[in-house]
Amino acid sequence: MPKPSSNLLLTSLSSEDAHLLKAHLRPVHYDQGRVLFEAGGRVAFICFPTSVIISLVIQLSDGQVVESAMVGRDGVVGIAAAMDGRTSLSRAIVQMTGDALACDASMLKIAVSRSPALSSVMIRHEQTVYAQAQQSTACMAAHQVEQRLCRWLLRARDLCGKDELAFTQEFLAEMLGVRRTSVTAAARVLQEAKIISYARGKIRVLDVQRLRESSCECYEAVRSHYSALLRNKHLETSRPGLSMPSLDRIERT
């Protein structure tokens, strides 16, 4: 059963604000590919990921899907629509199978109304997600597919706390907004350099430092946004080779 301590945003809350939410949180499990809500749809519940990773994506008229932001154990999904009762601006799809803590939108709205501090945290989170979406847009326009793939893998690795990532090339191409052949070529370069290994829909990170060196500036930019949001000692890097080492420690609590 996932614990509130497995989500860094919940961990960052004061004891009073955490108490406002605790009674309304329920454990849920989501499989890869599940759509939590659609763009233009009502958001009935919010989700605090503990091990699941969720992508916020935009679908174009030709069917192409592009990821705008990735949310995991350092965030929450659905908060903006839940707070103001409006529809979602993007589709939320499960990127990596895992667990989360869910809360009915109506209960979250009540909790936020009772605590200006909690409301402020949630608003700042949405600003962070917006900043990530802006960074993603700039990344797509300015950086090569190989750099973008490295950035994406690093972010996913941070959020799951594991070196092995279960993603097909089709899925990666969809999230990056490129053709599968482009992902295949980029992954081959990284594999030949022994930075990653790839087989049967599973990617293993072999050399984190070189993966960072091969990434664009966008990875560190997004990471710094979340560090500023949480202002939490859990985000400090104390062991080389792990981007967010505290995630493993939190998971064991």
Structure description:
The chain is an alpha+beta fold and 253 residues long. It folds into two domains: 4-115, Sandwich (Jelly Rolls), CATH 2.60.120; 140-252, Arc Repressor Mutant, subunit A. It has eleven helices and ten strands. The protein has helices at residues 8-12, 15-22, 79-84, 105-114, 116-142, 145-160, 169-176, 180-192, 208-214, 218-230, 246-252; strands spanning 26-30, 35-37, 45-49, 53-59, 65-71, 91-96, 98-104, 164-166, 196-199, 202-205. Strands 2-6-4-5 form a four-stranded antiparallel sheet. Strand 4 and strand 5 (65-71) form a beta hairpin. Helix 4 crosses helix 5 (116-142) and helix 7 (169-176) packs across helix 8. The longest helix has 27 residues, at 116-142. The protein is globular. The N and C termini lie close together (12 Å). Residues 232-253 have low confidence and may be disordered.
Average per-residue pLDDT, rounded, comes to 87
> Which structural class is indicated by helix and strand composition?
alpha+beta
Specify the CATH homologous superfamily of the largest domain: Winged helix-like DNA-binding domain superfamily/Winged helix DNA-binding domain
The strand line-up of the biggest sheet is: 2-6-4-5
Radius of gyration: 18 Å
Helix content: 40-55%
Low-confidence stretches: 232-253
Q: CA-to-CA gap between the ends?
A: 12 Å
Helix tally equals 11
Number of domains: 2
What's the multimeric state? single chain
Largest sheet: 4 strands, antiparallel
What's the CATH topology label of the largest domain?
Answer: Arc Repressor Mutant, subunit A
Order of helices and strands: HHEEEEEHEEHHHEHHEEHHH
Please give the CATH class of the largest domain. Mainly Alpha
Which percent band covers the strand fraction? 15-25%
CATH architecture annotation of the largest domain: Orthogonal Bundle
Query: Rough shape?
Result: globular
DSSP strand count:
10
